[in-house]
Amino acid sequence: MIWEGSVRSDHAAEDLATLIHAWHEEYNKVFVLRGSGIGNVRDFYQAQFPKIGAPVALGEDVGKGDRDNQRTGDVWMEVRYDPSHPDAYRHSASAQPLHTDGSYIPDFPNATLMACVANAGEGGETIFIDAEDVVTSLEHEAPDLLVALRARSITHTRSGDRRTEKIVDSANSTTLVNWNYFCIDKDIDSEGRALVERFFNFLANSPMIRQYIQAVKLMPGDAVTWKDRQVLHGRNAFIANRDSERFLWKCAIDVANFDD
C-alpha cells in the first residue's frame, strides 16, 4: 500500500516524475516523500504543484468560528499543535480516529498532501489502512455490518458542504470509503445513527483493523500524499511541550493523470 521515495531540492522535477509514475501502480495508495535540502516546506511543495497536480482551495481555520464556518478560501491549512484548541483534532495532541478528508465535500479531489515542518519526538505518526483491508476485516469479524454499510448511503456535513455516499462502496473493482464520524449529519435517523456508531466502534476495537494499520512518521521536509477514497487515515497521539512542536501544512489536490 505504501510507496516511499525521495525528493531533493535540486532534483525535484525528476523525483516527482517518479512519484507520478507510481500513482499508476495498482496497489500504491499512500506516497511518502522523504525530503532533502528543503528550506521553507510550504513554499517548496507549492512550487511543485505544476509537477504534481492541481490544488483546490478547501483550507479551513478553527479560529474563524464553529465547524460550519471554517472555510478560508486558501489552499493550505495548518495541522499544528496548539494547546489553545484542545478540542480540534488538527491542533490537539490526541490520537485521531480513522477517517477520509473528503467525507462532506462533493467532488473532493483525488488526494490529500501533507508537508512536515516539525514533528514531536515521541508519537505523532500518521496512520493508514487500505480500504480493501477494512473490507477484509469486516468480512471476518462483522459480515452483517459490511452488508449494512454497503446497502445504505450516509450524509456527512461541515463548513456548509453536504455529501451523501455509502461508507463502503466500489467502482471498477476498487473499494471506496467515505467516512468521518465527527461529520455525520446531525439529523441522521436512529437506524443510521446505530449504523455509524457500530462502525466507529468496530474501527476502534477490531483486532484485524489494528493488525492492518501502517504508520508513517514524517520528519521536517517530508511529505505524504494519499488516495483519499481508497484508504482511511488518522494519527497516533503524541507528546508535545510547546506550541507548534508538531506542524504540518495540508492541502487537497487532484494529482495529475490519476483516475479514480
Based on DSSP secondary structure assignment, what is the total number of beta strands? Answer: 15
Largest sheet: 7 strands, mixed
Strand content: 25-35%
- The CATH topology assignment of the largest domain is Double-stranded beta-helix
Number of helices: 7
Estimate the global geometry from the Cα principal axes.
globular
Which stretches are low in confidence, meaning pLDDT under 50 for 5 or more residues running? none
CATH superfamily of the largest domain: Clavaminate synthase-like
CATH architecture of the largest domain: 4-Layer Sandwich
**Cα distance, first to last residue?**
16 Å
- Give helix % range: 10-25%
| Rg calc | 18 Å
* Number of self-contained structural domains: 2
Q: Briefly, what CATH class of the largest domain? A: Alpha Beta
Class from secondary-structure proportions = alpha+beta
What letter string, H or E per element, gives the SSE order?
Answer: EHEHHEEEEEHHEEEEHHEEEE
What's the average pLDDT?
Answer: 93
Written overview of the protein:
This protein has 260 residues and is of the alpha+beta class. It folds into 2 domains: 2-129 and 214-255, Clavaminate synthase-like (Double-stranded beta-helix); 131-208, no CATH class. The protein has 7 helices and 15 strands. Strand 8 and strand 9 form a beta hairpin. It is globular, with a radius of gyration of 18 Å. It starts with a strand and ends in a 5-residue tail after the last strand.
